[in-house]
Specification:
mainly alpha, Multidrug-efflux Transporter Regulator, Chain: A, Domain 2, 2 domains, three-stranded antiparallel sheet, 9 helices
């Protein structure tokens, strides 16, 4: 099966979109996200999910866009740390990837994708800051936990929330 034809569970689709499994189920029920039934379970083709995630902002549910942008803001801060301390930041990522491979063996594809770039700071920087669907998916499975301390993370989240309210007021 080609990667584009890979069938994802609602949980896996939720991880890609950065939303809850229930939200993916609701999107399927409403017809916004195509799915197939396998037994009694919904499965979403990766190609359909990529098309949905790449939809123009008016077609993308607002909470998904918000979550992806919030993740992008956090990962831009990680990119700043990477620029200042590539060896230290990449060591954290490598350790997290090794731990994830043991704890979450079914998460192999995203672990493999991060492992393929983790030794090249420039490629990592590009994945941390790119707005495309593939980078969005990778950020949802980020090996950079622990790079930002909780206080810095909270400041970024608060700044993002302020910006979101100011620019997306209805």
């Amino acid at each position: 099966m080609e990667r584009d034809d890979e069938l994802l569970t609602t949980g896996e689709a939720a991880a890609v979109l950065g939303c809850s499994r229930q939200h993916v189920t609701d999107l399927c029920r409403s017809g916004a996200l195509p799915f197939r039934t396998v037994g009694t379970h919904r499965r979403i083709a990766r190609s359909d999910l990529v098309r949905f995630a790449a939809a123009s902002p008016p077609d993308v549910p607002r909470d998904i866009l918000r979550q992806q942008l919030r993740s992008l803001w956090l990962h831009r801060a990680v990119a700043g740390r990477l620029a200042a301390d590539p060896d230290g930041v990449l060591a954290i990522a490598r350790a997290n990837l090794e731990r994830a491979r043991v704890l979450h063996p079914r998460s192999g594809p995203w672990i493999d994708r991060w492992t393929a770039v983790v030794d090249d700071p420039e490629r990592v920087m590009e994945r941390l800051t790119a707005p495309d669907p593939g980078a969005n998916e990778l950020r949802q499975n980020s090996p950079f936990a622990g790079v930002l301390d909780e206080a810095e993370r909270a400041r970024i989240m608060a700044a993002f929330a302020d910006w979101w309210r100011a620019t997306h007021a209805s």
